[in-house]
Amino acid sequence: MNKSVLIIDDNEQFGLSLAQMIRSDELHVHISRNSSGAFSRLKNEQIDVIILDIRLGDESGIELLIKLTEQYPGIPVIMLTGFASIESAVQSIKLGAYDYIQKPVQYEKLMTLINNAFTMVSLKKENRELHDRLKDLSPRIQSCDPVVAELKRTIDKLTEANLPILLYGENGTGKELFADYIHFQSSRRAKKILKINCAAFPDSLLDNELFGHEKGAFTGASSVYKGVFERADKGILFLDEIGDMPLEVQAKVLRVLQNKELFRLGGKELIRVDVRIISATNKMLEDLISRGLFRKDLYYRLNTATISIPPLRERVLDIPLLADYFLEEYASENGTVLSRISDDVLTLLKDYSWPGNIRELKNVLNYAAAVSKNGHIEIKDLPRQFQNNMRGCSGGEKDGSRTISSDGNKNARDYLGDSERSIILQELKKTNFNKKKVAEILGISRTTLYSKMSKYGIK
Q1: Closest to 301 measured CA to CA, from 352, 349, 239
Q2: Running DSSP on this structure, what letter comes out for residue 109?
Q3: Residue span of the structural domain in which 181 resides
Q4: Within a domain: residue 140?
Q5: Is 139 inside a domain boundary?
Q6: Is residue 46 exposed (0-12), middle (13-18) or buried (19+ Cβ within 10 Å)?
Q7: Burial (CB count within 10 angstroms: exposed 0-12, middle 13-18, buried 19+), residue 335
């Protein structure tokens, strides 16, 4: 990629001479005689390094250096002077200059400074990208559930083994989040994980997205396109909804896993790849195999290690933790005051079956946080559809030891009263009436628990 240098010097002849000295096919040079011209160039051009004369006619190069480092801190500035002065050199560097060179300028020394400045900028950019990538991929699995804790311990043991991992779980349980966690823990985390949803592409487009094509492979193929397998070389590829992958594409994926090689569409060159696969599905692949919809040999390649993620209804203890996390996230993203959940709402959230799992919980809380007027989420703030779903739980259905009575006239608050008393009784019996323990399980204070026991006539 071409680089560009901006020379700022009031001596037009010297500026032209210096530009002629360093200009090349790979290095573009721009010249400005004063600060206004320099800032105009910086606004309209991509500048990588600045060469600035300390003596700038009626202006001060030192003062301009201060403005440049404030407004364009990422661009290194090399100071020029015709007067040997240790004091000015030290002052310039203290004020943010990258380095200092005296006139008459020696070509080799100046080019060394310029190239070193380019290298410094490139390294800083790589460090920023790596920092952002690590920040984005840092694990955010919010759970106090013992089953999830055991899954994480299993994953920690598998991360360095370089084995394929198959994630099972209902929609919304966080399969992609677990894939990110595996990637973050692995030795391949320095390279960004690539992801593709196999259900989001028609058959022909999925083939192209996975394996790429050569120029002229089909009408409209005006250039070479590298598929996601090739782009993920030395890294990790996450294949989501693997159960929706067509059989003909499955055969090509199997070849990559077995031989670590592929052909682009229309290509004759064999391309070697080293990719670790994490796949995910909400379908039972064994059932698809029996129906002829999934290859058995590919299944055995993918399920070397299998992680089954429990649905939210089996992680009731995680609901308060997840609720706090999503509300903090909402407040941070929207610049609002952090919302708090009433005990009544929290109990209702715990009693719901969550067919949409964690994704549904997040959507419900985001809506409630948006419509809540006082930063305290009450039942009336919950989405109407969610309240309708709660009313739909009536009809004599049983959930564990809780029986929900049938009453078509009940609203969500009435339902809450029935279910809340049952939940409290159930937890009291489980803990041999250890009220401190029950309060911890339900995520409420003991004072609130005593108040509710009194309200519902629980002795």
Answers
A1: 239
A2: H
A3: 146-310
A4: no
A5: no
A6: exposed
A7: exposed
- Beta pairing class for 340-341 and 376-377: parallel
CATH number of the domain bearing residue 67: 3.40.50.2300
How does pLDDT run across 92-143, given as a tens digit for each residue?
888 999 998 888 888 999 999 999 999 998 888 887 776 666 555 455 788 8
What does the alpha-carbon distance between residue 131 and residue 139 come to, in Å, rounded to a whole number? Answer: 14
Predicted TM-score (pTM) above 0.85: no
Residues 359 and 291 grouped into a single domain: no
Residue where a domain terminates, one of 103, 133, 163: 133
Task: Kindly report the backbone phi and psi dihedral angles of residue 216, in degrees, each rounded to the nearest multiple of 5, phi listed first.
Answer: 80, 5
Does 327 share its domain with 428? Answer: yes
190 three-state secondary structure: coil
For residue 403, the SS3 value is strand
Tally of structural domains, the chain: 3
83, 109, 133 - which closes a domain: 133
- C-alpha closest to that of 412 among 373, 381, 447: 381
Q: Amino acid identity, residue 402?
A: R
| Buried-state track 131-150, b at ≥16 Cβ within 10 A, e below 16 | eebeeebeeebbbebeebee
Q: In b/e form, how buried is each residue of 10-27, taking b as 16+ CB within 10 angstroms?
A: bbeebbeebbeebeeeeb
